[in-house]
Amino acid sequence: MMEKVTYPAVLNKNEYQEKTVYNVVFPDLSLANTYGESIKDARENAEILLKLLLDDSENLPRSSTMVDIQNHYPDSIVSLITVTKELDGDKEQVTQFGQLQ
Fold first, then answer.
1. Domain covering 2-100: architecture
2. Do 32 and 49 meet the contact criterion of CB atoms below 8 Å apart?
3. Lower CB density within 10 Å: C or N end of the chain?
């Protein structure tokens, strides 16, 4: 049996040591953050982070809606990150993610 888990991620463009980076946070998951040197890299790293969080926690908090997160972060990119976890203990697989700007 498989369980899909989706959380909105917030991406913000920043300059760091003369490079552009995209910081990613999951507002519903405290201390969950990552980054990438492009939006694509940032999203891929967000997927990996969410998969790792699934490995470490059985009871993740309920996710907020895209509308709530977009309203709270109006100048940011908000992406839905969805991963699938097999409940029988097999490895999780990333299935899809979407974006709302």
1. 2-Layer Sandwich (3.30)
2. yes
3. N
